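Deliverable D2.4 — example input (structure tokens):
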């Protein structure tokens, strides 16, 4: 399994929004047992 973690501010800056969107698109290509996405904000 691959663990993908994204760290972002709250509210996220435009760059973070882009990175989060990209990570979500990557996550959609894999099953839950293959890739776990966690987005930390704050």
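Example output (designed residues):
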């Amino acid at each position: 399994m691959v663990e993908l973690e994204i760290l972002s501010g709250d509210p996220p800056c435009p760059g973070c929004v882009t990175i989060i969107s990209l990570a979500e698109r990557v996550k959609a290509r894999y099953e839950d047992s293959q890739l776990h996405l966690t987005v930390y904000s704050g």
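The mean pLDDT is 96.
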